[in-house]
Amino acid sequence: MIGLIGKKIGMTQVFDSDGKVVPVTVIKAGPCKVICKRTEAENGYEALQLGFEEIPERKVSKPMQGHFKKYNCSYYRYVREFRPTHGQNIDSVQIGDELKADIFGEKDSISVSANSKGRGFTGVMKRHNFGGFISSHGTHETFRGPGSIGQCAQPSRVFKGIKMAGHHGNSKVTVRHLTVVKVDPENNLIMVKGAVPGHRNSLVTIHKEQ
Amino acid sequence: MPEGKLYLCGPYLIVAMHLMRIEITGRFIENLFLVRSPLITIGFFLPSIYMGGTQQMDILQQVGRDQIRTDLPDYRVGDTVKVHYKIKEGNKERIQVFQGIVIQKKGAGVSKTFTVRKVSSGVGVERIFPQNSPNIDKLEIVRHGQVRRAKLFYLRSAQGKAGRIKERRRFTV
Fold it and tell me: CATH for B80-157?
């Protein structure tokens, strides 16, 4: 009971007990089946393997079919492993258990990981928060450029890791210390204060932080 | 299997493949997900059973549904209203009344807001209220205004006669 796989539904707002507006992201979390457990003795590490969204057999690749058959469970679209952190204990969880959104409670602290929205080839201002240049007082042609990328004859090359324009987004991003505002165990929905990486309907993994 | 509710639809409802709002006996049945029956292609209509797929936007609407207030009167842009707003100071709670003209309504669903403008000792004051806020104790309509646009930003610079709003004539049915 350390986390769940879910889908980002979108953002909306709720009123808290003081009547203040709280911006929330709605996530459909679970239900997830425990496919198998990784153990220190067998695999060298501890983890729970969860499956999310049941699918028919014909949609599963042959290698994955073998995996599901080995543990004698149904087929799932998404399979992720969750390692215990923050002193969590997974001994009480059995293979075949169904984990639902009710493992989260209000005011729980969680971290959410997902693939961020792809932004394509972007310049340094968007990608690395560079400042750009002023648009008047004689600025010539370069308004959003990076400026200097190094020195001159010494060292006669550009150092590795210099921040430049390039592909931005579509990479795994984790946002930590998010707060659960509301849980709807009936519909497996949780509401998280603030934004969560990824587009609507993107796969997210939610980890408990306690 | 996609999750959702099962709806039985008569042939006259098999009209679209999209999310629709259908009015039945005066109430909107929202989020009915209609799929075209394959039998339509041969010109034969039959009542069909559809899976009402719970779409992501529906979930968002459902999440906000129980927070939407239906007890407020139907106010319009141009109306002069009195907003009784609860204010918490420490443990004490009191009600402040803000009276002015509604100059804009904005947003949809649970995030609707409206802006009220008043002129307080020569200074224009505008306040934005979330329409569904539980802190709105009461909303009174003092005067119905007759206006010809949805946003009354011209009131900010209007002086004298231009800044006045005619009273709307109301017909009782």
Answer: 2.30.30.790
Cross-chain residue pair B57–A191, CB shorter than 8 Å: no
Amino acid identity of B79?
D
What is the residue extent of each domain of chain B?
6-66, 80-157
* ipTM value greater than 0.85: no
| Contact check, Cβ <8 Å, B60/A26 | yes
Closest CA to A60 of A72, A49, A70, A74: A74
Token readout for B117 is: 């403008």
Does the pTM of the predicted model rise above 0.80? no
| CA of residue A85 relative to chain centroid, distance | 16
Q: Quote the CA–CA distance of B10 and B28 in Å, as a whole number.
A: 16
Q: How confident is the model over A1-48, as pLDDT tens digits?
A: 688 999 999 899 999 888 889 999 999 997 898 998 888 888 898 888
Alpha helices (H) along chain A = 40-43, 62-70, 124-128
Question: Does any CB of chain B come closer than 8 Å to the CB of residue A189?
Answer: yes
What phi, psi does B38 have (nearest 5°)? -65, -20
